[in-house]
Specification:
Number of domains: 3
CATH topology of the largest domain: Alpha-Beta Plaits
Distance between the termini: 68 Å
Order of helices and strands: HHHEHEEEHHHH
Strand content: under 5%
Structural class: mainly alpha
CATH class of the largest domain: Alpha Beta
């Protein structure tokens, strides 16, 4: 009897999850659509999905035999992330934030968004240190994941296929991250065990002894505070962005690039001033 009850609960969660847009945006307060589906099955409100909108609320109300209530937040329309590639510094922070692996690139290389895979969750925007990611309207050639009403039956089928695909990518990424974290923990544990059984052999090195003595006589540099380090990194990132923009300007010399270079010079001066002020405090 208890197993049957568990199976029924799992089926209900899957049915609820199928009605959610699978943007995995966390705007509902949960770390993805499936956790929100689990919360709804346990009694949470059905109006916390901004991408789903009224259509999703109506569908959930019909499924669960609950009253229709107003959306808790403003509806999020169908949208897409777009990286201004000329300004990208290749930090990989957006790649790490994307819940469906829709951004490709590598460290210190330009990144780009795979439009057909992007769910428009906006999670890549905040981590970007150079603010080079825009959220734009979804191209008309792509069917929206979100709860936009008044679409044809064929589009509904395509939308459901896109949602299923987004869910699969989200779950695959989650599994991969868990596997990688488990591997790191195992490697860390193996190193600790190896260190515990390996005897430490100390040998006297005259040359190293002299070096250590000289270092001990040198004045120790004052360590930067966390805020000073943050400002120093900001200066470096703005400088990189400015260097890239200046290279683009030399090649194309458009009014847009001229304005971009001017803005970055102002931003760099402000960042340098902030860093200098922090050092003197």
């Amino acid at each position: 009897m208890k197993l049957k009850s568990v199976n029924n609960q799992m089926q209900l969660i899957n049915l609820i999850d199928a009605l959610l847009p699978q943007t995995q945006c966390t705007k509902c307060g949960y770390q993805g659509c499936k956790p929100y589906a689990e919360a709804i099955a346990n009694g949470d409100a059905i109006n916390k999905c901004p991408p789903g909108g009224e259509e999703t609320i109506n569908a959930l109300a019909a499924l669960l035999d609950r009253p229709v209530i107003a959306l808790a937040e403003e509806h999020s329309p169908a949208q897409l992330a777009y990286i201004r590639e000329a300004e990208c510094i290749g930090c990989t922070k957006c790649i790490q934030a994307c819940p469906v692996d829709a951004i490709v690139g590598a460290a210190k290389l330009m990144h780009t968004v795979i439009a057909a895979e992007c769910t428009g969750c906006e999670l890549c925007v905040a981590p970007c240190p150079v603010d080079c990611i825009d959220i734009i309207s979804l191209p008309t050639k792509l069917v929206a994941l979100t709860g936009d009403s008044a679409i044809a039956e064929g589009q509904r089928v395509t939308r459901q296929l896109r949602r299923d695909h987004a869910r699969n990518r989200f779950e695959f990424r989650s599994t991969r991250l868990e596997r990688e974290e488990k591997r790191r923990q195992q490697e860390r544990q193996a190193r600790l065990q190896q260190a515990a059984v390996t005897p430490t052999i100390q040998t006297f090195d005259p040359k190293q002894s002299v070096i250590d003595k000289v270092k001990s006589q040198q004045p120790t540099a004052t360590a930067l505070t966390a805020e000073q380090k943050k400002l120093k990194i900001e200066v470096a990132m703005v400088q990189v962005a400015l260097n890239k923009a200046e290279k683009q300007l030399k090649q194309y010399n458009t009014p847009e690039l001229q304005q971009q270079v001017a803005n970055l010079k102002v931003k760099l001066a402000e960042a340098q001033q902030a860093f200098t002020s922090a050092l003197t405090e």
